[in-house]
Amino acid sequence: MAFANPLITAYAVEATEFPDLARHYRVSGVPKTVVNETIEILGGLPQDLFVEQALQPNG
Amino acid sequence: MPLLTPADQETLRAAFDEMTSPVRVLFFTQTLDCESCLETRQILDELPPLSSRIAIEEVNFILEKDKAAQFGIDRVPAIALVGGDSDSRIRFLGAPSGYEFISLVQAVLLVGGRATSLTPENLVRVAGVDKPLTMKVFTTPT
Predict the structure, then answer these.
(1) Which of A19, A28, B1, B140 is deepest in the core (most CB within 10 A)?
(2) Residue of B nearest to A59 (CA)
(3) Residue contact A15–B117, C-beta within 8 A
């Protein structure tokens, strides 16, 4: 998604290496995706659903 | 001692052969207090021998703070993938071991010219985003 839009930046974060981040974002399971500090997506989703949730207007 | 088996190397070499543009792998690192920086360097060193289009550029996180800030890096080890024309804005925080290595390879291929895995419909939706979006995907080594 980041590659498709210059406004999007994507970080793949290794949770066990950065427990401070995992705590801050309340990562209790992986994969967990956090968009703009507000939207949380838990687990792996089919692409349509993932894009829909990641691009929610309240993000 | 290579981390990849000869068979893995051949598979990757064939995949990287499909790349049409160069990829700069910016590796942000520091010598002290970074347990997985060395491991990350060892993993990344596996890539350039498999493709002349892949280059590793080491960035000293302590001495090159401006560059780290420019690429949105606030901890190490970190990787930023930069394409021939522009920054891909794809980052990896932590050592790309286990399944993350596959993710890194996929990202390198994408930046190197492989077609996106997004469907045409989703590509339109993503391209339509008109405000900055930062996505953090948390994973664990497997």
Answers:
(1) B140
(2) B133
(3) no
